[in-house]
């Protein structure tokens, strides 16, 4: 280095050489200047590139801008740091070299960055001086700044990603097991007593003992203690990158599920650096538990449905077999004793009873299956509660008389008797309750039907209670709970001698539910029973008409009445003709729909009073035949009353019959009292 100075010295003292050096320095692409290391740090020399860096044309301009000193050359904000750095570098190395970067302010005000390679030297004439090579580093600096900015943005993106991912976590810790240190990244109030802020560093061992004591459910404390034991964590994470443990805390007296997740973020072979996250999994676990319970319930349900199905089949098989055995057995006996009139009569009576039972069972089962298949609908029409009660009274009378039962009706509390309801179903459910009351009451017992109307604030609706009470055998406390379940009977037919299917009350309850009402039963063994159906019905605000339960003497409906019976099945035809003639009707027959049309078309109006029409027939069925009759030109013939007599007894069959113009629908086999009653009503209206 001294050699160089001497060279410079030599050159400086030699003017020619000095000129040469100046020229050389001026041709250098980078900046070059010399300044005093002491005093004002005056600049002794600056080459052309240096002037250019400062956007100056002349040395005078350069001097003006820089004050001709190194201090004035450097940006005021950078000078202090730059001088300190130079001092330190010169003191710290043997070469007296330094490297600094700083900003300058060009002529015109633009700020540029310079790289400064300085060399300190002591000169005999000039004293301590620095000679410096500079390069304009603005573009590189800009690039660096941009890269830094990009790095910062990336860092911020990562941080917000971590924050986003950790949003579910109420507490997150970073721990080093080797150093036995743990620090929080995110802290919930539950850890605050230990970690005041994210700068708190604690020993890892025992960091959560207060937390466990204060918050964790006593039954789960050991689980969590184990999960945060360093040896356990090392063992678990040596096999997998992460593991988790669920536990419960007690929050405001309620249990809440939390999850601790531990992740190895360090060396796979030696577990030490880990991240631990605590988050609430309450909703997930509760949902999972709920799903499990639902599955369990569904399984139970499936099992019990299966049991119910098997019970149903075995009940059905028993209940069908019993009357069928009787029918087959008594028919065989009747054949055997065909000449003994008394015996045959007795056997036929038995066959009749068994057929009745079988029919009732089939009807009930069909009705239940219709209810279950949602095929039953409630259809409202205007009807009279008085008529319904009267009909029930008539229907039940034979049994009431046979058992010498005292049947009383109490309808004095009835203000609106014309209501809108499903007449057929209302009749059916009340009849079932009354029939049961008579059935389960001994000889000379008492049965009452009461209809109460309670005050309603709604002008359109009234609340009704239909109460059927008896003083019969009553129902035990244990059985009452099952009374509305299918096939449930307090005592089976064999034991009690009372025939039943155990389906009646199931049907009744279902229909009451569909009508939006309720059914209640109050009873005790030997104390009689009270069944109450409560319904809200739309009312017709008409005048109350006095009720006369007893029918006035009327001409029998059958007198001189001619019925056209349309039926394709020979046996049915024979039975029905016989029954109708026995009841006093004149009967003519047609074996399909087209013959019926033929007969009616060629008859005098009024010759036939009624048509009993089967539905399923060859050539032309009952629906088509009825439609054709309704289209006859002569209105007196076209409007003849037509009653469907059909084995198709579902609601939809009944609706279809009405749609094609029939006046009523009766199920097969013919129930004579029912038929007579209907005929009476229809003929009275025509
Ligand atoms: P069923 O009468 O055909 O057996 P129900 O469904 O109508 O079927 O009734 C179910 C059971 O409820 C009956 O078997 C009987 O044990 C009991 N029960 C119903 N009504 C009465 C009543 N009025 N008094 C005593 N027991 C009754």
Word description of this protein:
This protein has 686 residues and is an alpha+beta fold. The chain folds into five domains: 2-136, Beta-Lactamase; 145-290, PAS domain (Beta-Lactamase); 299-372, Signal transduction histidine kinase, dimerisation/phosphotransfer (DHp) domain (Helix Hairpins), CATH 1.10.287; 381-547, 2-Layer Sandwich (Heat Shock Protein 90); 556-685, Rossmann fold. 45% of the residues lie in helices and 23% in strands. It contains 23 helices and 23 strands. Strands 12, 13, 14, 15, 16, 17 and 18 form a seven-stranded mixed β-sheet that branches. Strands 8-7-6-11-10-9 form a six-stranded antiparallel β-sheet, sandwiched between helices. β1 (31-36) and β2 (43-46) form a beta hairpin. The longest helix has 55 residues, at 282-336. The radius of gyration is 54 Å and the shape is elongated. The relative contact order is 0.04. The structure holds adenosine-5'-diphosphate (ADP). Residues 436-437, 440, 470, 472-475, 483, 489-490, 500-506, 529 line the site of adenosine-5'-diphosphate (ADP). Adenosine-5'-diphosphate (ADP) is lined by residues 436-437, 440, 470, 472-475, 483, 489-490, 500-506, 529.
């Amino acid at each position: 280095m001294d050699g160089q100075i001497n060279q410079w010295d030599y050159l400086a003292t030699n003017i020619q050489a000095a000129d040469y050096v100046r020229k050389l320095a001026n041709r250098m692409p980078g900046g070059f200047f010399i300044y005093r290391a002491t005093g004002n740090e005056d600049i002794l020399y600056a080459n052309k590139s240096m002037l250019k860096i400062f956007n100056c044309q002349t040395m005078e301009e350069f001097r003006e801008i820089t004050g001709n000193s190194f201090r004035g050359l450097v940006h005021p904000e950078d000078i202090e740091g730059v001088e300190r750095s130079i001092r330190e570098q010169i003191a710290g190395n043997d070469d007296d070299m330094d490297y600094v970067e700083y900003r300058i302010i060009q002529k015109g005000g633009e700020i540029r960055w310079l790289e400064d390679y300085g060399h300190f030297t002591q000169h005999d004439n000039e004293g301590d001086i620095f000679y410096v090579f500079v390069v304009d580093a603005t573009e590189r600096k800009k690039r660096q700044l941009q890269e830094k900015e990009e790095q910062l943005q990336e860092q911020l993106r990562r941080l917000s990603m971590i924050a986003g991912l950790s949003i579910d976590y109420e507490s997150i810790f970073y721990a080093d097991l080797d150093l036995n240190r743990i620090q929080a990244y995110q802290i919930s109030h539950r850890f605050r007593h230990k970690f005041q802020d994210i700068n708190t560093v604690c020993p890892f061992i025992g960091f959560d003992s207060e937390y466990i004591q204060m918050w964790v459910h006593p039954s789960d404390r050991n689980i969590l203690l184990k999960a945060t034991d360093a040896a356990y964590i090392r063992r678990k994470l040596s096999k997998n990158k992460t593991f988790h443990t669920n536990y419960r805390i007690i929050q405001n007296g309620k249990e809440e599920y939390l999850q601790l997740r531990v992740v190895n973020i360090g060396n796979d072979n030696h577990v030490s650096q880990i991240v631990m996250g605590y988050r609430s999994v309450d909703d997930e676990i509760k949902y999972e538990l709920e799903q499990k319970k639902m599955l369990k319930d569904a399984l139970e349900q499936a099992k019990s449905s299966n049991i119910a199905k098997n019970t149903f089949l075995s009940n059905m098989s028993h209940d069908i077999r019993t009357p069928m055995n009787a029918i087959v057995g008594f028919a065989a006996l009747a054949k055997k004793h065909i000449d003994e009139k008394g015996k045959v009569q007795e056997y036929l009576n038995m066959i009749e009873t068994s057929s009745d039972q079988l029919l009732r069972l089939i009807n009930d089962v069909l009705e239940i299956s219709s209810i279950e298949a949602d095929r039953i609908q409630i259809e409202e029409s205007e009807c009279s509660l008085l008529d319904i009660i009267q009909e029930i009274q008539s229907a039940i009378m034979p049994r009431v008389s046979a058992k010498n039962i005292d049947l009383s009706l109490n309808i004095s509390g009835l203000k609106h008797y014309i209501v809108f309801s499903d007449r057929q179903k209302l009749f059916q459910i009340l009849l079932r309750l009354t029939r049961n009351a008579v059935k389960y009451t001994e000889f000379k017992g008492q049965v009452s039907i009461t209809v109460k109307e309670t005050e309603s604030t709604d002008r359109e609706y009234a609340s009704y209670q239909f109460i059927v009470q008896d003083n019969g055998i009553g129902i035990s406390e244990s059985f009452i709970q099952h009374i509305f379940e299918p096939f449930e009977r307090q005592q089976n037919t064999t034991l009690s001698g009372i025939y039943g299917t155990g389906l009646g009350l199931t049907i009744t309850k279902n229909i009451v539910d569909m009508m939006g009402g309720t059914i209640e039963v109050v009873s005790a063994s030997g104390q009689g029973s009270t069944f109450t159906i409560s319904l809200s019905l739309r009312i017709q605000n008409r005048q109350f008409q006095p009720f006369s339960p007893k029918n006035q003497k009327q001409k029998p409906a059958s007198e001189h009445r001619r019925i056209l019976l349309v039926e394709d099945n020979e046996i049915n035809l024979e039975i029905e003709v016989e029954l109708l003639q026995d009841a006093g009707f004149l009967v003519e027959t047609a074996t399909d729909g087209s013959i019926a049309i033929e007969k009616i078309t060629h008859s005098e109006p009024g010759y036939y009073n009624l048509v009993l029409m089967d539905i399923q027939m060859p050539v032309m069925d009952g629906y088509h035949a009825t439609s054709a009759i309704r289209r006859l030109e002569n209105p007196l013939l076209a409007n003849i009353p037509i009653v469907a007599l059909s084995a198709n007894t579902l609601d939809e069959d009944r609706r279809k019959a009405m749609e094609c113009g029939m006046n009523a629908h009766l199920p097969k086999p013919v129930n004579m009292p029912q038929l007579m009653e209907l005929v009476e009503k229809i003929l009275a209206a025509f």
